[in-house]
TrEMBL record, chains A, B:
Official protein name in the record: TetR family transcriptional regulator
Lineage: Bacteria, Bacillati, Actinomycetota, Actinomycetes, Kitasatosporales
DNA-binding region: 37-56
Keywords: DNA-binding, Repressor, Transcription, Transcription regulation
PANTHER family attached to this UniProt entry: HTH-TYPE TRANSCRIPTIONAL REGULATOR RUTR, TRANSCRIPTIONAL REGULATORY PROTEIN
Keyword Nucleus part of the UniProt annotation: no
Organism for this UniProt entry: Streptomyces yokosukanensis
Amino acid sequence: MAARTRRPERRQEPLSRERIVSAAVELLDTVGEGGLTFRALAERLATGPGAIYWHVTGKTELLAAAAEAVVGPAIAGADTDATPQEAIRALALGVFDAIDAHPWVGAQLARTSWQSPMLRVFERVGRQVQALRVPEAAQFTAASALMNYILGVAGQNAVNTRTVQPGTDRTEFLDTVATAWAELDPGQYAFTRDVAGQLREHDDRTEFLAGIDLILTGIAARR
Amino acid sequence: MAARTRRPERRQEPLSRERIVSAAVELLDTVGEGGLTFRALAERLATGPGAIYWHVTGKTELLAAAAEAVVGPAIAGADTDATPQEAIRALALGVFDAIDAHPWVGAQLARTSWQSPMLRVFERVGRQVQALRVPEAAQFTAASALMNYILGVAGQNAVNTRTVQPGTDRTEFLDTVATAWAELDPGQYAFTRDVAGQLREHDDRTEFLAGIDLILTGIAARR
DNA sequence: GACACCTCTGGAACGCTGTTCCAGCGAGTC
DNA sequence: GACTCGCTGGAACAGCGTTCCAGAGGTGTC
């Protein structure tokens, strides 16, 4: 028994939404999307699965909160004294870099439509679209196109990091795919073969920005 | 036993990969993404879950095959005697319409990187990019941007149909979101409020095509 | 001090999933 | 008739998100 001598074995910090969310982010970062389970999370927090549900309604909300925690700060910067184009680029890169640092965020954003934080991105992209003097009737189209492109890249980024074995690095992965492309049937896949080299050597970030610029050029030309 | 008179109670058709995939497509179309389980599929095929695994390696392959079955025919058309822009539009619309008719395909395509059938889309988009006389060094970028945009729309389309309750129709759903947008804080969400009306009245297909055209314009301007 | 509250805990259990296992059926072959 | 082998389908397994609930621990009231 020795009930007298038992130490105050109660957990140092009490459970809280913040502690749960930040533990979830750590788990997602280290073990990946599939690694976030309520049991693993409970173990990390030295509690049981049931306790977590007191602070969080379910996995959906938990993932949304984790994404918010990571993306929120990344898009918080001010876009004063910058051209609209530069502001949009900076915003898009903020999202991109957050996804790059936390691949699971890409899947999460692509899965959850325009709730926060992507609604905030939409708002700020839209304002810059207005600053570009895009006709009112075309503003929704312009901002939507940018959002869809960003979310498309987000999703693909997530897919790629999910596909790659945890052991291999990015260069090796690109090399494998590029080699596979180069060995496709020349009749059926002439173009894909042609650009296999560009796939091998491209930089994701630069390429992402080039796509943004393509759309921005399109928007400017239509003004 | 009356073994003599027993009808050929053996299932009419034997199990086969095609039967399984087409049953999966039916299930996905009627019950949605979450409705495709091996048990439901087995019941529909009047067999057990184990039998399915003889013809299909697992759920991943099954989903890929289902997407291929739906998207494959949609992008099979020939693009002879059409301008490159028209060919790209037609191709993109083929993918869009397939997704529109089978919402789960959007999620599937967005989830599986550029395997078939999206690699075939990439190839054919790329050829038209070459036909547009885009400099070699920019071809990968141009084709990738189009692909990422298409996949972004695909993913968002899937999200929206997943969010909406099976009861309500699209108009009602758009109305709800647009109303919510119109009631946002004017200080923080000025732009979003401004375009709430455009959200309510927009047509997905037209909007999708407008985005494609924006990128095409950007590509042409950079030539 | 005793009692009743009420927030919060965490382990057990539920129903569901994808997947594996394997006894056995039925047609074709020696 | 026996043997083989492609194929079947029901049972079982491990894991998931989620729910349930007995009870611990702190706080306020008499």
